[in-house]
């Protein structure tokens, strides 16, 4: 029944996307601000207490309520599961950013695309970014958002049911709210949120990278994963982006960095006898986003390829889950 609820929630979201900001994000931000106001004294232990209070009671309540409803009425248990999955999954949560970026670049509106990218990343506007850089960052953001909004939630839903989906989504949210902030004592206060989500996301992130490899160019994806992900400061993110870049056959990250200085060079300077198309140059280990992937720099056409990769990955994921359920039923 969990598989049926998962598929049905994905279909419902395609027809009627959830207004996630109004119904989920804003209430959670208010809750996070209240907890931080009461507990944030700039100490790691205070962050641990706040994280436990923020995440574990909601997870336990979801598990208990789901179990009670399923025992009382199979229909009520199914409806509860469907509602929880609908509230926690977000296949279309950020897709409008990617679609608008793609359209702007197709129309030749690079300035608008830069603005959309800065809004999506919630970062500063950079008017010096070239089109391939904008495309590459959009693809990276799409791959990462797909994992965090869809595949990561699905992985924990399979393991723990609705409670797993709530656990992952809350851990991700408080990592964003507390773990990624360095102001007002959040560096130490948010350490628990950072470490907890890194642990919770360790297996789902690598499973998503594997699914990208299966859905795309498997050999290149695994090669990039094994040889290039280690260069990223955020190893987990490096695994995901390296696998996605290899699966798509494009170069992502800080394309064109020299191994000695980390300074950018012209892409055409790397295209010597086609060597750069198959062997990206080694980049410094301490670089935040060194080059990963194979082939040419990302172009606008690769954005459509990214959409195709995400959909194929979703189909593969659901197919594997379906076969697993069938095998379990036959075995029992």
What does this structure look like?
- The model is unreliable at 258-287 (pLDDT under 50).
- Strands 2-1-3 form a three-stranded mixed β-sheet.
- Helix 2 crosses helix 3 (44-72) and helix 7 crosses helix 11 (202-215).
- It has a domain at 202-298.
- The chain has helices spanning 2-15, 20-39, 44-72, 74-88, 95-106, 110-121, 131-160, 162-179, 186-189, 191-200, 202-215, 218-228, 235-248, 267-270, 301-331; strands at residues 250-252, 292-293, 296-297.
- It starts with a helix and ends with a helix.
- With 332 residues, the protein is mainly alpha-helical.
- The protein contains 15 helices and three strands.
- 40% of the residues are buried.
- The protein is globular.
List the helices and strands and how they pair.
Blueprint: H1 2-15, H2 20-39, H3 44-72, H4 74-88, H5 95-106, H6 110-121, H7 131-160, H8 162-179, H9 186-189, H10 191-200, H11 202-215, H12 218-228, H13 235-248, E1 250-252, H14 267-270, E2 292-293, E3 296-297, H15 301-331
Helix pairs in contact: 1-4, 2-3, 2-8, 3-4, 3-8, 4-8, 5-6, 5-7, 6-7, 7-8, 7-11, 7-15, 8-10, 11-12, 11-13, 11-15, 12-13
């Amino acid at each position: 029944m969990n598989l049926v609820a998962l598929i049905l929630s994905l279909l419902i979201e395609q027809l009627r996307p959830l207004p996630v900001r109004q119904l989920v994000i804003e209430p959670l931000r208010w809750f996070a601000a209240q907890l931080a106001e009461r507990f944030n004294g700039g100490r790691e232990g205070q962050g641990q207490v706040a994280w436990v209070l923020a995440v574990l009671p909601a997870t336990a309540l979801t598990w208990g309520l789901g179990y009670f409803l399923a025992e009382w009425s199979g229909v009520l248990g199914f409806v509860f599961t469907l509602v929880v999955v609908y509230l926690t999954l977000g296949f279309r949560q950020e897709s409008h950013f990617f679609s608008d970026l793609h359209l702007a670049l197709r129309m030749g509106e690079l300035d608008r695309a830069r603005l959309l990218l800065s809004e999506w990343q919630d970062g500063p506007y950079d008017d010096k970014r070239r089109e391939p850089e904008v495309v590459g960052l959009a693809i990276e953001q799409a791959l990462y958002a797909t994992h965090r909004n869809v595949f990561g939630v699905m992985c924990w839903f399979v393991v723990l049911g609705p409670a797993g989906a709530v656990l992952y989504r809350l851990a991700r949210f408080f990592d964003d709210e507390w773990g990624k902030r360095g102001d007002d004592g959040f560096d130490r206060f948010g350490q628990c949120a950072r470490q907890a989500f890194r642990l919770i996301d360790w297996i789902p992130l690598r499973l998503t990278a594997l699914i990208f490899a299966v859905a795309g160019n498997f050999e290149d994806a695994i090669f990039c994963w094994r040889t290039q992900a280690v260069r990223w400061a955020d190893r987990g993110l490096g695994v995901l982006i390296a696998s996605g870049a290899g699966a798509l056959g494009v170069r992502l990250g800080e394309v064109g960095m020299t191994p000695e200085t980390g300074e950018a060079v012209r892409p055409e300077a790397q295209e010597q006898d086609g060597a750069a198309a198959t062997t990206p140059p080694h980049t410094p280990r301490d670089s935040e986003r060194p080059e990963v992937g194979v082939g040419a720099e990302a172009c606008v056409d690769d954005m459509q390829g990214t959409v195709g990769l995400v959909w194929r990955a979703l189909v593969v994921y659901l197919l594997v889950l379906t076969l697993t359920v069938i095998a379990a039923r036959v075995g029992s």
